[in-house]
Amino acid sequence: MSLFRNARFVRSVHDLRDLPPPGGFEVAFAGRSNAGKSSAINALADHNRLAFVSKVPGRTQLINFFALPGGGLLVDLPGYGYAKVPEAVRKHWEHSLTTYLQTRETLRGLVLVMDVRHPLTPLDYSMLEWFRPTGRPVHVLLTKADKLSRGAALDTLRKVRAALEAYGPQHSAQLFSSLDGTGVEEAEAVLAPWLGQDIKKPQAKGESPGPKTP
Q: Phi first, then psi: what are they for 180, rounded to 5°?
């Protein structure tokens, strides 16, 4: 059974005081506005409308919680980095993201979503630095991989993995496409242990496995 299929909406939170009580393990998804985060979540859940997809960047302004069939929660964080939102809203997002990522007891790891054509922006590096003190793992989904040739996508993947080495062995990356399903099984295999589940990791055709974790 898919790790995320049949996920169901639990609640949306604007103020951190309204977070659900810590319970099962949580995996959070974050990313720059318009990087394809909502589409990636929908592809993993095999559900076209689980997470709201907008053509207008900056529309996801809440922390959304989804219960997973095998236990645990998928947490969809607000997109970051969109300049055309009021300053007060942007500051609220930054405070909420930082506080949740650094203090949530049940958070097991962070999925950082980046457009494969524009990876590792300054704001992505800021997110990595915000999360670094937790010591928890980060897995990067390089979305929209279908927009590049296979060779160009793999070259970007190698560069991103090399950059992540500075953050330690718990940082990994893969190619992903919500359009053609590339990387869905691989992502599930990486995230399953975070949620206390066991799925064997497939290796994408033509893709190097990357550095081994000691």
A: -110, 5
Q: Determine the residue type at 170.
A: Q
Question: What's the pLDDT score for residue 62?
Answer: 83
Least Cα distance to 124 among 92, 167, 153, 158 occurs for: 167
Strands 107-115 and 138-143: parallel
Instruction: For residue 75, give the 3-state DSSP assignment.
Output: strand
Task: Provide the residue range defining the domain that includes 159.
Answer: 8-195
pLDDT digits (tens, 9 = 90+) for 153-168: 999 999 999 999 999 9
What CATH code is carried by the domain that includes residue 144?
3.40.50.300
pLDDT score for 87: 78
Distance CA 177, CA 181 (A): 5
Single pTM value for the model: 0.86
DSSP at 78: P
In this structure, the chain runs to a length of 214
Tell me the two tokens of residue 159: 């560069």
Number of domains in the chain: 1
CA–CA separation, 128 and 109 (whole Å): 12
The Cα 177–Cα 183 span in angstroms is: 7
pLDDT in tens, 42-76: 999 887 767 654 344 444 578 899 999 988 999 99
Q: Pick the residue with more confidence: 214 or 24?
A: 24
Q: Rounded to whole angstroms, how far apart are CA atoms 85 and 87?
A: 6
Answer yes or no: is pLDDT of 202 > 60.
no
Amino acid at 45: A
